[in-house]
Design brief:
There is one protein chain. This protein has 21 helices and twelve strands. By secondary structure, it is an alpha+beta fold. α10 packs antiparallel against α13, α11 runs antiparallel to α12 and α16 crosses α18. It is globular, with a radius of gyration of 28 Å. The mean pLDDT is 92.
């Protein structure tokens, strides 16, 4: 069936389908006539008399026109209704409001209990070692079905904040630009043959005991069959050492693609961008995340594309490589079958022999972070908006952290979903607590009334204060948290919590015990101490027509 579908296009237009299947003959024809494609381009494109130029221009009054049509439609409908019809509508609206406010009897539904949750967290045995005399290595031996997984992190702490905006582009360029001796097409062929892919990404995490200290840098990941271990490390080394940032044509295409993709992503994931923007004023990690992957990054890439100064960009990317890829700040993690540990050790040591080791230099820390609050509005040509509110709370190891995480789940299911989605008409919304970032946030998604939703966030805190939390509600909130904690892990992710952010198995077990021990009164207590009347930052992404006077405008 697939074969028939692949030849159906020409078949339907009278082409003999067997012609499509003569692959070897067609390939030989192409090899014999090396100019076949240039002739086709010349015939049908460059010298063709059949041309159509189609230009699309944005209508600056488009959104205003939609509002006018909506208003006209409403007035037309109202003119057709009699007083009796309006009374019927009012009665139906009152009935809907009463239905939305009614407490549903959820006890009739089947549910899990906390007895179904394992009391102990799964532990992952790891061995700590050293490679090339100084590089820490975390070894995890597991049944990996003949695959070796490699992770590596180069951290610069909070230094070089002027280079943070380039980190995202830098990571993408490493697997796009090609190297000084090979094109990216050749490298990609080897990557497909010998690895399951190689990825680079910006990395930021917060000290588990202090929200003011962060670790930032680059994370790397790859995996391969055990028979291709040496080739995998060789490809990783080639990309790290030899990527050519001076290829301006490729760099220009990459910048344009990233700028367009990120801008388009805001319309689909605006709630995530709003949350990053709101939290960026509260902790150093979220300031870095905003620079790396928030509206600040969208604006940065857009400005870069418009400026066209690619020589400066290439120079900055070289600076990123110089300060990030440093053997003295590198740590690695390898997950493999026990029989392949030695092979990974040898290949890793071989790669580290060539790994950069810049001369020691004294680099001042970045500017001291001062938390502040505010209200930020980003106007975009969208029909609905996104609202977010962020509050700085406590670090990961604080006893109240587990209570805040349960509270976010309870607020979402018990109050915010009903108010934001069912009453305000948004596609979605809720509350979340990032334990490592120490940020409690509210958000709404594709919200027709984002400004009204900000008031709903405040009402959620008032609701938890006056609401008698039922045992069922508390149990469901805990089950939701345990569902996140106990989600299945691939072999590649086993033991990675400690490697990436320093969360040990003992810490995970202590936190698990804390979740079991949370009581209803604890939720009211932390809501009162950390959320009620607390200073917070609001962020809204939405149409220009919103009345946001007095708010700081963020342009992208």
């Amino acid at each position: 069936m697939r074969l028939m579908q692949s030849v159906s296009t020409g078949w339907f237009h009278g082409v003999d389908p067997v012609e499509y299947l003569r692959v070897s003959e067609n390939v030989e024809r192409l090899r014999a006539d090396t100019g076949v494609f240039s002739k086709l381009v010349e015939k049908y494109v460059t010298k063709s008399n059949h041309k159509l130029k189609f230009v699309m221009l944005a209508d600056p009054r488009y959104m205003q026109g939609l509002d006018e049509k909506e208003h006209e439609l409403i007035q037309t409908k109202l003119a057709q209704l009699s007083p009796g019809d309006l009374d019927v509508l009012d009665a139906k609206n009152a009935e809907l409001a009463a239905e939305q406010g009614r407490t549903e009897d959820l006890s009739v539904l089947p549910t899990l209990t906390l007895d179904d949750v394992a009391p102990t967290a799964r532990r992952f045995a790891v061995d700590m070692g050293v490679c090339a005399e100084s590089v820490p290595v975390q070894w995890r031996t597991s049944a990996t079905n003949g695959i070796s997984y490699v992770r590596a992190i180069n951290a610069v702490r909070d230094k070089y904040p002027e280079l943070w905006p380039y980190m995202n582009l830098f990571c993408e360029a490493l697997t796009y630009q090609g190297t000084r001796s090979r094109t990216m097409a050749s490298i990609e062929t080897d990557m497909r043959l010998y690895t399951g892919g190689i990825s680079f990404a910006p990395f930021v995490t917060t000290d588990l005991g202090n929200l003011g200290h962060i670790e930032a840098g680059i994370s790397m990941g790859t995996h391969s069959l055990d028979s291709n271990i040496e080739r995998m490390y060789a490809l990783l080394e080639e990309l790290i050492l030899q990527t050519d940032f001076t290829n301006e044509s490729r760099l220009q295409a990459l910048v344009a693609s990233m700028a367009t993709n990120m801008y388009n992503d805001v319309a689909g994931s605006g709630h995530a961008y709003a949350r990053r923007l709101a939290a960026s004023t509260l902790t150093p990690e979220m300031r870095a995340v905003e620079a790396l992957d928030g509206l600040a990054q969208v604006r940065f890439l857009g400005d870069m594309r418009r400026s066209g100064d690619l020589q400066h960009v290439a120079k900055q990317l070289e600076n990123v490589r110089r300060v990030v890829f440093d053997r003295s700040t590198l740590r690695t993690a390898v997950t493999a079958n026990a029989s392949c540990v030695d092979a990974n050790q040898r290949a890793l040591e071989q790669m580290l022999k060539a790994y950069p080791s810049p001369a020691d230099s004294v680099v001042e820390d970045g500017p001291r972070f001062e938390a502040q609050t505010g209200q930020y509005f980003c106007p975009l040509p969208v029909a609905t908006g996104y609202a977010a509110q962020a509050t700085r709370c406590v670090p990961f190891v604080h006893p109240d952290s587990v209570k805040l995480q349960i509270l976010a789940k309870l607020m979402t299911s018990g109050f915010l979903h009903r108010e934001i989605r069912e009453r305000n008409g948004a596609y979605g919304g809720g509350a979340s607590y990032s334990a490592i970032q120490g940020i409690f946030s509210f958000y709404s998604y594709r919200d027709p009334v984002p400004c009204d939703t900000l008031a709903t966030f405040t009402k959620a805190v008032e609701w938890i204060d006056s609401h008698d939390v039922l045992e069922r509600e508390l149990r469901e909130a805990k089950l939701s948290v345990f569902g996140d904690l106990d989600a299945p892990l691939s072999a590649a992710d086993e033991g990675m919590a400690g490697f990436m952010s320093g969360v040990s198995d003992d810490m995970r077990q202590e936190r698990r015990d804390g979740f079991f021990a949370v009581e209803a009164k604890d939720l009211k207590d932390v809501a009162e101490r950390y959320l009620a009347g607390a200073k917070h930052t609001n962020a809204v992404i939405g149409p220009e027509s919103l009345d946001m006077s007095g708010w700081t405008r963020v342009q992208v």
